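Hi X.,

You mentioned you wanted examples for the new student's onboarding notes, showing what a folding record looks like when two proteins sit in one file. Here is a clean example. The first protein comes first, with its sequence line followed by its structure tokens.
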Amino acid sequence: MTSDGLITVLVADDQALVRAGLVALVGGQPDLTVVAEAANGAEAVARTRETAPDIVLMDIRMPVMDGLEATRRIVGDATGRGPRVVVLTTFDLDEYIYDALCAGACGFLLKHAPPEELLLGVRAAAHGGALLSPTVTRPLIEAFTGRRRMPIRPPAALARLTAREREVFDLVAGGRSNTEIARALCIAETTVKTHLGHALEKLGLRDRVHAVVYAYENGLIRPGEGR
């Protein structure tokens, strides 16, 4: 963020009209500012390195370099708390979304979503939040991990979690919100956040979206299970 608290955003989309609309929408908010634009993935990577935005709004399907490779490079470049990439797509089950999440994107937003939803997503990402609600996350992950062979044994890293951390992690992976988890376990929401933070750190995961991906990839939850 800037010294006066503004969330800095880079907009990457190969369609000039779409890009201009996003720039106008984001730039018109008192707490957001657009620091750069890009018409393809290569430009997005270069401009991200130059401007170090808080958020990169990344279209997936672009010329020269697609958004998937651009996301991988931006996240790979980051040291410490680097830019958070939010994928933009026209379809809610775009085949590339799963790969974008694995590449390091913190979530995705639909281009045809209401403006207030997109702005809410940008702000949530800037403050470390997840952009996929359980109703969107599970069908998405199920659609693509369901095609992959699940491992027979859970990863050894899970043994590093305390009993409570594993309990919280499993509930997050099942699509529960912090409020629902706190209610189910009879603990405070702040305690849920603490346990989840510890679990994510021990497993080397970025956020709760990637916790869901991890759970499905490692057979902790099978497609169709969850809430």
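Then the second protein repeats the pattern, sequence line and then tokens:
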Amino acid sequence: MRSVVLLLLGAHLAYAGTHSLKYLYTAVSGDINFPEFTAVGLVDDGQFMYFDSNIKKAVPKTEWIRQNVGADYWNRETQGLIGEHQTFKNNIQIAMERFNQSKGVHVFQQMYGCSWDEETGDVDGFDEFGYDGEDFITLDLKNLRYITTKQEALITQVKWNNDKAYLVGKKQYRTQICIEWLKKYLQYGEKTLKREVSPQVSLLQKTSSSPVTCHATGFYPSGVTITWIKNGQEHHEDVDLGELDPNEDGTFQKSSTLRVTPDEWKKNQYSCVVEHQGETKEEKEDIITNFDSVPIAIIVGAVAAVVLVIVIGVVGYLVYQRKKGFKPVSASDDGSNSSART
């Protein structure tokens, strides 16, 4: 059975006052039961559109986008992404040549977009590429240049950084056009995108010797932190932080697992602290197990402005492709910006 390596991209998460518009492109080569190319659009980490090379059609994934844009919007999206499919198909072949690969399953990804702080007005943008689960080349918007640590990406880096018009176009899209569409989407889906829903928290354990999982679900927006406290102090040893996952209703879930022995449970006091901008809630819960429950504290606290730096997986979305000198395409008028071409 063949497998595909997914890169865990650095997340541009939504927290109090901050919103993001993000597009994820993925190209796949080799013998695998997955579309050659997929594209996903997200506002505040919630999916609102989808395209793949099998259906050859951009489709809405939320009611708010379906109700506020017409057929022209989807036709433009579809035509643009059909072109991106061909571009990325070519790019992944170039990537394989760069890495001296002639066959096998390979994945090339791009994640680009922008973020806007509703409270301060600050804007930011990002453009990240990866190949086979590793960073390939990334836009440094502040210094308006692309940076890489990969020898195979140096040709691309030099080409892009020497094209000043290309760099200016990248900045213009991320700091102006993308922000305008983000604000428009937020207006379209205001009731959904600006709602606040507090997390429901549970502690789960299979057996008395199994790890304990602190599971938070049903929260919105996506910004949440889960911290373990041992005897009043933050505890990071033997802790596995899970990825941010979407629920079918548009909310999110996340978990953190603590590996401790039954003897450590008896000798120490542990708490799971979940921070979100919802209502303050503090309660005692029992671990849900297949044996006698053990009490442990769960604290759900309100956070007025939590700054989060969490690495998440792009859940379910293959996103990577590659190229030999990505070349930009001018921004379209439909909220998305075509990726660079070889």
